[in-house]
Amino acid sequence: MRTHALTLAAVILCSTTAMLAADDEAKPLPDNSNGLIKEFPGKLKFTCSSYWPTWGPEKAFDGNPVKSWFTARKDAAAFGTKPWVAVEFPQDVTVRRVTILANREPPWQIGYTILVGRLELLDAKGEVLFHRDDEVGGERMDMEVRPRKPIAGVRTVRFTSHKDEGDQNPYEDVAIGEMMVE
Asked: Where is the signal peptide (predicted)?
């Protein structure tokens, strides 16, 4: 188990290649431009189920994948909760792609990974316009979602952990390195 975790950590540190989208052909993806996050500086609302002091939800949207959002102690699927992080836009936007990068913050790369989660695109009333359950971490490291067609009328992008390593570390928390939206 320890050898697998060390191998996983080495892959996470070395991996910067975007992964394939579930709806696309097997071809490399260009880096996510994060255009929608960059378009509204100072106007986005970042929320989450909980956070560790100084590692709030804004860390998942700061453009720096080695600075992560960490949940508070015991806010992990491994303990029966459903930790989540979200960004709310000041107006409706059209989402073409969301990339979620697994935790890469040193020295906490091992034992803090979200393994399976749900990405949701919500409208202004909180109704789900699109969702995808998928793996994050493990062999794939990241979650890459490109719907078959762009989703219009999106106000909030939310990611929720369904399976994680919260019980694999002394702080009993989990983390996301970055969430990019274009």
From this structure: 1-21
- Say how far apart CA 166 and CA 120 lie, in whole Å: 22
Predicted TM-score of the model (pTM): 0.82
The CATH T-level fold of domain 2-181 is: Jelly Rolls (2.60.120)
Return d(Cα 36, Cα 93) in angstroms, integer: 8
Instruction: Calculate the alpha carbon distances from 100 to 1, 103, 109, 146 in Å.
Output: 25, 9, 15, 12
Sequence spans of domains, the chain: 2-181
Give the model confidence (pLDDT) of 143-160 as tens digits: 899 999 999 999 999 999
Which ranges of the chain does DSSP label H, i.e. alpha helix? Answer: 2-14, 35-39
Yes or no: say if 174 and 166 are a contact pair by the CB < 8 Å rule: yes
Q: Which two tokens stand for residue 126?
A: 């909180």
Find all residues with CB under 8 Å of 132, minimum gap 6, and list them. 22, 118, 119, 145
Provide DSSP, 7-37.
HHHHHHHH--SPPPPTTS-S-PPPPP--HHH
- What six digits make up the tokens of 28? 């490399």
Pairing state of beta strands 84-95 and 45-48? antiparallel
